Amino acid sequence: MSITKIESLTESAGLIEVQSLVLEEKTVSLTPPPSHTALPNRIAIVGNYLPRRCGIATFTTDLCDALHAEYGTTELLALPVNDSEEGYDYPARVRFELSEDNLASYRQAADFLNFSNIDLVCLQHEYGIFGGRAGGHILELLRRLRMPFVTTLHTVLREPSLDQRAVMEEIVTLSDRLIVMSQQSVEILQEVFCVPAEKIDLIPHGIPDLPFTDPSFYKDAFGTEGKEVLLTFGLLSPNKGIENVIKALPKILARHNNVVYMVSGVTHPHILRREGDKYRDYLQNLAKDLGVQASVIFRNRFVSPQELVELIGAADIYITPYKHKAQVVSGTLAYALSAGKAIISTPYLHAIELLDAERGVLVPFDDPEAIFAKTVELLDNVTARHAMRKRAYLYARDMVWNRVAQKYMECFERIYNERLRNPRATFSAQNTEKHFDRLPSIKLDHLLRMTDSTGMIEHAVFVIPNYPEGYSTDDNARALIVAILLEPFGAIEPRRGADLASRYLAFLWFAFDPRTKRFRNCLSYERQWQEAEGSEDSHGRALWGLGTVLGRSKDAGLRGAAGRMFELAVPAALEFKSPRACAFALLGVLEYLDSFPGDRAALGASDDLANRLLNFYRATRSDDWKWFEDGLAYSNGRLPQALLRAGVRAGNEEMVAAGLEALDWLVALQRCEVKGHFVPIGTQGFHSKTTERARFDQQPVEACAVVSACLQAYRATGKGRWRKEAWSAFNWFLGDNDLQIALYDSTTGGCRDGLHPDRANENQGAESTLSFLMALLEMRKLEEADGTENKL
């Protein structure tokens, strides 16, 4: 509970002054989101939208407008449901339209959302607006969504039918959170559907920020000057109970002959299609039979927001004579409350809650006599009526749309960041067959697609090479390694394989600057270098590629071209400050030494780089941080891999022990605490001694590095534990990951660029595809060396 004090609302243009009125009001308490959280950038709202004529359409439109007004940088998309083939003339915010009874359109909508990089979806749920039994078609959309989503429940039934219960139970299970608009809804969700309280947010129905006006200010717009106006508005249907007010009118008019009753709204479209205007005709005939037709004004129109303000403003008493107790939300009641109207209502659930503490009066269902008595009581006692109005108006201040939009965004922020911290597989991913611990065949279609006459193109748009992004030495060095690793497997015709290797090696020749003895890294598609000197990492990777040619290739021409460049490029690596760059270079030197073990210069370079890595480790290691530097970033596994391999070659037990200890710490850190699968360090912040580990975005390059490092540990120790760890990291590519989504695309032979909190990055760039192929080839080499089947 909180205390709200309004010092004054001055009288101007019909505004009524409210002096120092203190009111105890209920507030919606939402646990504040954790610090250092991110707002979702693209939000999709699924629900009917104006100009379709229904309460959900009005609510969805108002919610989108309020969110846009409060958070202009957040992009909002709307996906309404059409109940007719011709549809509606929607605004630009509507990006996709669902067909109510067409199940396929729900699947298509899910695909649209998944491919549109939507961060979060908010569903406006009402049984009657979706197709299928109890609106069950919407489940087809929800099951396929990859991103987090919250469901706003406009109807929560204490006694649902079997179909309604089944639909609601699945919505509850699939949704990250549920938003309801009344405490009664919270209680029903907990008692009937066993929803834990922590999954529910109570956010009131949004209302416009209307002025507290004298009703006379707007009456001339409706021809009711000098009249006492009773009002009911909204879509007409037999469950609205309007006939009970008309039946009470004769007695009301006997006491107050200047009363008029305005009934504003069109007949509900579904009722109109099914029955025509039968209910309106009944009401009009009833008024005529009772002799009160002159005092009943039927306004058969769907009002604009501005007209709605004036309409509510003109009312002295607002009446909701609904017939069903189970109604947990009434937008029209909330609107009347927002304008500070004196309200008479039947005791449906939302009315009981909103009109508590004398913010309105309740009358029994289907009781014209009670409506008569309360109406006359309020008309007779102006002071009591205005006190009721003030209580209602002040209570409603927490329900105005800007406040509601803020509460919605708090909920969205919490959901979005909770999914970042605790990802979960989508329903569709959970039900997709996966094949772990089985090596796929070697498929090079995408590698060839990404290679042109210059070399390996760096990025892709989905599976299409992204020419404007150009090329990099990093990727062409990786591609060279893959091309050499392919040689023993016969996965490509020898001449074609040699052509690929020579193309990537030629790129490295082009990248090498003989003046500086350093490699440049970034090359535009127009073959213009974008910097004078590349990073230490790119130089180290180039050396690794050259060393792999010299250590493994049988092609004398390739070896000859690589040898001279390797000799010229090694000295620069001895000045590197980056542990990672040292590891890359060391791996290249060790590859070279496998073929030329007597090269004293290379031996000296190997010792220098290996000891530098060991010294990095000695200087940084502690009992709770067993690593080479103060942070973890990308390709982390390459550091213990290089130190292990150097230690084994030199017979240095300290290096071997340090490499195994660091790798053991790394793989333990990169393991799901609950299910045990591999979870690479995320690139959205990485990890350091002083910051939490980033869960996303997870990158293939890290999985590849851990595969290689664990296989090196397996060769060094012969322990099957390391073989299992290598499989765990490789299975990440196949779908054994946080979202149960395969990164490897068996149709193209490419690899998706990473794992986001809610989906895979569908672009299949060079680094990702090469990382997968490198890991696959190393696993195949293990399989051949062990002579075992390709499973544990």
Quick overview of this protein structure:
By secondary structure, the protein is an alpha/beta fold. The chain contains 28 helices and 28 strands.
Task: Kindly describe this structure.
With 792 residues, the protein is of the alpha/beta class. Helix content is 46%, strand content 12%. The strands form ten sheets. The protein has a six-stranded parallel sheet with strand order 4-3-7-8-9-10, sandwiched between helices. α7 links the parallel β11 and β12. α22 (579-595) packs across α24, α23 packs across α24 and α24 runs parallel beside α26. The two termini are 60 Å apart.
The major sheet is characterized as: 6 strands, parallel
What best-fitting shape do the alpha-carbon axes yield? elongated
Distance between the termini: 60 Å
Poorly predicted regions are: 1-35, 788-792
What count of helical segments does DSSP give? Answer: 28
What's the mean pLDDT score?
A: 91
Approximately what portion of the residues adopt beta-strand conformation?
5-15%
Would you spell out the secondary-structure blueprint of this structure?
Layout: E1 2-6, E2 21-25, E3 42-46, H1 55-70, E4 75-79, E5 81-82, E6 98-99, H2 103-115, E7 120-125, H3 138-144, E8 149-153, H4 162-174, E9 177-180, H5 183-192, E10 200-202, H6 216-219, E11 228-233, H7 242-255, E12 259-264, H8 269-275, H9 278-289, E13 296-299, H10 305-313, E14 317-320, H11 331-338, E15 342-345, H12 349-354, E16 361-362, H13 368-380, H14 382-395, H15 401-421, H16 427-430, H17 445-449, E17 460-461, E18 464-465, E19 471-472, H18 473-486, H19 494-511, E20 512-513, E21 518-519, E22 522-523, H20 536-552, H21 556-573, H22 579-595, H23 600-620, E23 631-632, H24 638-650, H25 653-669, E24 687-688, H26 700-717, H27 720-734, E25 744-745, E26 750-751, E27 754-755, E28 760-761, H28 766-786
Parallel strand pairs: 3-4, 3-7, 5-6, 7-8, 8-9, 9-10, 11-12, 11-14, 12-13, 14-15, 15-16
Antiparallel strand pairs: 1-2, 17-18, 19-22, 20-21, 23-24, 25-26, 27-28
Helix pairs in contact: 1-15, 2-3, 7-13, 18-19, 18-20, 18-28, 19-21, 20-21, 20-22, 22-23, 22-24, 23-24, 24-25, 24-26, 25-26, 26-27, 26-28, 27-28
